[in-house]
């Protein structure tokens, strides 16, 4: 079956699923393969669970006329998404970057949804499977689609751009994330900049953080750019008024009081503001959107428990995001500060150096109560408490009371799942 014919079926049953455990009635099930699973083997189960059609790429799993055999299910999913993206009239905004992608995406969505029919990437489904699924969630009446793009190696963003064909783009920042796959910081800059390269080549518009010297340099000769800055008068002025702990912004004569903690979230808010302005969302509407947005899913959440003030930022971590989170926590006017920091993953040969740098930073900033968790931190040279894994952290917290009325920062890579520590904080 060709992609055009499959798209006709999709228009009749416009919901795609890749997980039989989450099948809803009339979903189209794509039988994808992974290192440890073969979706073709679940074709019958998908039909039993209510799927309208199943897309397979192994003939022996053909069942009946509800089964559609293709050469490669993943490739067909990507082709269908690309076809649908061009079939619909929605403008596509793509964003990538080392830190803050998902929060920025949510903020942009909140702002633009004040005026337009919008869709956005769900969670962080931002890879070669997630991006197609996002594009397939575009409805015929969708006006703007906000598509998050993640990457951990070269050419990945380029490939996602070829599928999504973005009309606009924004890079949050260039940081020390996925160093192993990208081959160092320069590799990160090169990989993330593939979004710029696609947009410039196709003469599309770019949103620019003009406070970032790397972005300024890369786009100095490009004219279709719309920038914001707190320091550069050539660009739309947005100022950071405060971050104690919540980010407060001044733009024109309007003060916006967000529920986001940390000065590092300032530029994420700015991106949403500049896009709102570009798409003619009135400033009072932008203010409402940003002030209503509340972070969740372990991203800079404020939790109060047993008299403690907890900043739970355990969704993910890399050396750049860890550094700014610690520095921001240090700047807060709080007492009895406690750091619970977990390992940072995908750093390759830089892992030892980067973990040592974080322990050195904690020492330099004179944090007295620090718990480092994970095998990488356990190998560092530090006088702070080191725990090999979560079980040791669990035991420590169960046996030791933190200082009364402590303020805690909990941060680590997703694989550490440090949000589990909440249960044991006394």
UniProtKB/TrEMBL annotation:
Residues 16-83 form the Mur ligase N-terminal catalytic domain. Keywords: ATP-binding, Cell cycle, Cell division, Cell shape, Cell wall biogenesis/degradation, Cytoplasm, Ligase, Nucleotide-binding, Peptidoglycan synthesis. Residues 299-383 form the Mur ligase C-terminal domain. Pathway: Cell wall biogenesis; peptidoglycan biosynthesis. It is found in: Cytoplasm. Its EC number is 6.3.2.10. Its main location: cytoplasm. One of its GO terms (cellular component) is cytoplasm. It catalyses: D-alanyl-D-alanine + UDP-N-acetyl-alpha-D-muramoyl-L-alanyl-gamma-D-glutamyl-meso-2,6-diaminopimelate + ATP = UDP-N-acetyl-alpha-D-muramoyl-L-alanyl-gamma-D-glutamyl-meso-2,6-diaminopimeloyl-D-alanyl-D-alanine + ADP + phosphate + H(+). One of its GO terms (molecular function) is UDP-N-acetylmuramoylalanyl-D-glutamyl-2,6-diaminopimelate-D-alanyl-D-alanine ligase activity. It comes from the Bacteria. It is an enzyme of class 6 (ligase). The keyword Calcium does not apply. Gene3D superfamilies: Mur ligase, C-terminal domain, Mur-like, catalytic domain, MurE/MurF, N-terminal domain. ATP binds at residues 97-103. One of its GO terms (biological process) is peptidoglycan biosynthetic process. Residues 96-275 form the Mur ligase central domain. Involved in cell wall formation. Catalyzes the final step in the synthesis of UDP-N-acetylmuramoyl-pentapeptide, the precursor of murein. Belongs to the MurCDEF family. MurF subfamily. This is UDP-N-acetylmuramoyl-tripeptide--D-alanyl-D-alanine ligase.
């Amino acid at each position: 079956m060709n992609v055009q014919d499959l798209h006709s079926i999709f228009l009749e049953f416009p919901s795609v699923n890749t997980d039989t455990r989450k099948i809803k009635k009339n979903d189209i099930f794509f039988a994808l393969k992974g290192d440890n699973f073969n979706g073709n083997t679940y074709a019958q189960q998908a039909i039993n669970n209510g799927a309208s059609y199943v897309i397979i790429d192994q003939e022996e799993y053909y069942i009946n006329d509800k089964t559609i055999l293709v050469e490669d299910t993943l490739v067909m999913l990507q082709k269908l998404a690309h076809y649908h993206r061009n079939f619909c009239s929605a403008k596509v905004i793509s964003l990538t970057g080392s830190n803050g992608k998902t929060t920025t995406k949510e903020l942009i969505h909140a702002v633009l949804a004040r005026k337009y029919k919008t869709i956005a990437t769900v969670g962080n489904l931002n890879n070669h499977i997630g991006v197609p699924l996002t594009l397939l969630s575009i409805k015929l009446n969708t006006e703007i689609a906000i598509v998050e793009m993640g990457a951990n190696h070269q050419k990945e963003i380029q490939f996602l751009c070829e599928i999504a064909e973005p009309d606009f783009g924004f890079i949050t920042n260039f940081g020390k994330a996925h160093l192993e796959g990208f081959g160092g910081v320069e590799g990160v800059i090169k990989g993330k900049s593939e979004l710029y390269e696609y947009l410039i080549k196709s003469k599309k518009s770019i949103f620019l953080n003009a406070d970032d010297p790397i972005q300024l340099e890369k786009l100095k000769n490009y004219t279709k750019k719309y920038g914001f800055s707190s320091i550069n008068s050539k660009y739309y002025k947005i100022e950071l008024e405060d971050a104690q702990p919540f980010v407060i912004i001044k733009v024109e004569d309007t003060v916006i009081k967000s529920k986001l903690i940390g000065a590092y979230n300032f530029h994420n808010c700015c991106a949403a503001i500049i896009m709102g302005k570009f798409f003619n969302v009135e400033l009072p509407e932008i203010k409402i959107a940003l002030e209503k947005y509340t972070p969740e899913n372990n991203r800079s959440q404020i939790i109060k428990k047993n008299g403690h003030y907890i900043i739970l930022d355990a969704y993910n971590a890399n050396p750049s995001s860890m550094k700014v989170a610690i520095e921001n926590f240090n700047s807060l006017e709080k007492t009895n500060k406690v750091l619970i920091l977990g390992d940072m993953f995908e750093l390759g040969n830089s892992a030892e150096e980067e973990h040592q740098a974080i322990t050195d930073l904690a020492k330099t900033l004179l944090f007295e109560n620090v718990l480092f968790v994970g095998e990488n931190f356990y190998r560092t040279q530090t006088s702070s408490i080191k725990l090999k894994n979560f079980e040791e952290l669990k035991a420590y917290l169960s046996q030791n009371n933190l200082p009364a009325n402590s303020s805690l920062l909990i941060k680590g890579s997703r694989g550490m799942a440090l949000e589990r520590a909440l249960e044991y904080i006394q």
